[in-house]
Write a structure and sequence with these properties.
The complex is a heterodimer. Chain A is of the alpha/beta class. Chain A is built from 11 helices and 25 strands. In chain A, the strands form 8 sheets. Chain A has a 5-stranded parallel beta sheet with strand order 5-2-1-9-21, covered by helices on one side. Chain A has a 4-stranded parallel beta sheet with strand order 13-12-11-17. Chain A has 2 domains: 177 residues, FAD/NAD(P)-binding domain; 139 residues, FAD/NAD(P)-binding domain (3-Layer(bba) Sandwich). Helices cover 28% and strands 28% of the residues of chain A. Chain B is mainly alpha-helical. Chain B has a two-stranded antiparallel sheet. The chains are: A alpha/beta, B mainly alpha. At the A-B interface, α10, β23, β24, β25 and α11 of A face α1 and α3 of B. Bound molecules: flavin-adenine dinucleotide. The site of flavin-adenine dinucleotide (FAD) has 37 residues of chain A, from α2, α3, α6 and α10.
């Protein structure tokens, strides 16, 4: 290990490996870590890097408050308020001394190691963490567009879209037709569309609908927790949900927001509510910086979440290619702890341990009937690989399902406290 | 990547009426970051997920072993405990038992 003056001054803490960490211009300066995106990925990294001190952390995120996509389906179903899924950055900014730059990051200059904010300010970094989540590929569904999403919401990024979908759902009269265009892999939250179907069915049933229908047009031949969802739909909402795989619909040909129609190879549906969930890709800032490959997502080193194309940059959460891990808030939060440890290892001499990741996703099918799927993951054979997994079983008794819903609610309280307090 | 070869700072916690638990607190702190996604550091009991901070180390070791050997049900905890070594469990127990509930 190279000894350097700053270790005696102590301003930047001990530097474990001076060779891998370029000296800041000012001897006493703390290492600078810039985090782009304040979702469960980025906000968790910012907190965990800042928490133990000695590092200057800036979180770049335009919003003052973050609405979680997780449990936004429970908001749709009337199980939660919108306020209860919305969280402010003020607490973590104050408690851990994080600078919250309330702007979009406009560009990354990887050679100069700077981030330019939309307002023009330039932030230098020693390590950059990129966690911008997803962008919607509007043109993956013919006829769909950002404009069309005002009539046919995707509600796959939480906020006004989520509220619009709930308003549309509550306005339906008995005999209504809902069409969901489900997304192709890979997308955020594999069980999410099917939990959403369950929540829409719950609302229709609770409002006394007898004839309304939900038609799911899926580009995939099968989906996450399929056996559990299908069992739940038959049990709680008999005759209401019709799921079609590509063999049944022959291909999704397009949507028309003006006439509220959805065309497949075999049929045309006129609907009262259309929820289009298009294909997805890493947020623009990551793609513009050349961090994504042809898949639209960003390749990472499984032992650290470091970008495979730039040793000063980490990418995590939905924007990354995380092997066997699903794109979930839980996964993003889990990856963030590995990133924070590795970043502190590089710039603040923190101890590092072999990366471990985990995930659990709960889905609410009907009041007190919740199922879960989860796994543990490690770096193996060049990717993040599952070391063990589990999933709820069909036919479980009501008491177990109710207990699983209690876990789901307690997890939400836990993870949001972990991220935003 | 560099895995720090720093001397392992072991900490011991004596649990009343039971054997002493010795573990690497820094390792425990890193491993605990997985746990606090679900277990809030409030020391408060709430439905669904019990608080584990400030609990005696020996009983944490016993409970984690019960999940690891699948004697105690709950797939979430069984799956998490499956990959914990005895050293990991000791490190976690030392770390969590050393915390004072936040509020
Ligand atoms: C309906 C639904 C249900 C879900 N349910 C669950 C669930 O039950 N459990 C679960 O674990 N996950 C669930 N998810 C998935 C989860 O929401 C995502 O996987 C998670 O939000 C990903 O986190 P992230 O930090 O990678 O990205 P995001 O949460 O998308 O956060 C990215 C942030 O970066 C910001 N940003 C983007 N570009 C820039 C820029 N240029 N400059 C500055 N900031 C920028 C954005 O504003 C955003 O705040 C669900 C998702 C949906 C849609």
């Amino acid at each position: 290990m190279t000894t350097n003056r700053r270790q005696f001054i102590g301003g930047a803490g001990a530097i474990a490996a001076a060779s891998s960490f370029p000296m800041p211009a000012i001897a006493q300066a703390k290492a600078k870590v810039v985090v782009i995106g304040g979702g469960p990925g980025g906000a968790t990294v910012a907190k965990y890097v800042a928490k133990d001190g000695g590092v200057d952390v800036t979180l770049v995120e335009p919003a003052r408050r973050f609405t979680t996509c997780f449990h936004s389906n429970l908001y749709l179903g009337g199980f939660r308020s919108f306020g209860s899924i919305t969280h402010s950055y003020d607490k973590i900014a104050k408690a851990y001394g994080i600078t919250h730059a309330r702007q979009l990051a406009a560009a990354i200059d990887r050679d100069k190691k700077t981030v330019r904010l939309a307002g023009g300010r330039v932030l230098p970094y020693d390590r950059l963490v990129v966690a911008p989540g997803i962008d919607i590929k509007f043109d993956s569904v013919p006829g769909y567009s950002e404009e069309a999403s005002k009539r046919m919401p995707h509600a796959w990024q939480a906020g006004p879209q989520t509220r619009l979908l709930r308003r549309q759902l509550l306005a339906l009269k008995d005999g209504a037709t809902i069409v969901m265009v489900a997304p192709p892999n890979p997308y955020r939250c594999p069980p999410g569309p099917y939990e959403r179907v369950s929540m829409m069915a719950h609302v229709l049933k609770a409002r006394g609908h007898k004839k309304s229908k939900i038609i799911v047009l899926d580009p995939k031949p099968n989906f996450s927790k399929q056996g559990l969802f299908v069992e739940g739909w038959q049990k709680h909402y008999p005759g209401m949900v019709e799921w079609q795989d590509p063999k049944m619909h022959g291909g999704i040909k397009g949507v028309d927001a003006k006439t509220m129609t959805v065309k497949t190879d075999l049929a045309e549906y006129k609907a009262n509510l259309v929820n289009v969930i298009p294909a997805q890709m890493a947020g623009k800032i990551a793609r513009d910086a050349g961090l994504a490959n042809q898949s639209g997502f960003c390749a990472i080193r499984p032992e650290s979440m470091k970008s495979t194309v730039d040793a000063n940059i980490y990418v995590l959460g939905d924007a990354s290619i995380a092997g066997d891990m699903p794109k979930s808030g839980f996964s993003a939060n889990s990856q963030a702890k590995v990133v924070a440890m590795m970043v502190r290892g590089e710039v603040a001499g923190g101890r590092t341990f072999p990366a471990r990741y985990s995930n659990t996703c709960w889905s609410l099918i009907e009041t007190d009937d919740t199922v879960k799927v989860g796994g543990a993951y490690e770096a193996k054979d060049g990717k993040i690989a599952a070391t063990s997994t589990f999933i709820s079983k069909t036919g479980e008794d009501a008491a177990l399902r109710k207990k699983t819903q209690e876990e789901n609610m307690a997890w939400y309280a836990g993870i949001t406290a972990d991220i935003w307090t | 990547m560099i895995f720090a070869a720093a001397a392992v700072a072991a900490a011991s916690v004596a649990a009343p009426g039971s054997a002493q638990v010795t573990g690497d607190r820094a390792l425990g702190q890193y491993l605990s970051s997985e746990c606090v996604t679900c277990h809030q550091l409030t020391g408060k009991q709430q439905p669904g997920i019990p608080a584990i901070d400030g609990k005696p180390a020996a009983s944490l070791v016993e409970q984690l072993n019960a999940y690891r050997t699948k004697q105690r049900p709950n797939e979430v905890m069984q799956n998490i405990a499956a990959r914990l070594s005895s050293d990991d469990i000791a490190a976690l127990a030392v770390y969590f038992s050393s915390l004072k509930p936040r509020n």
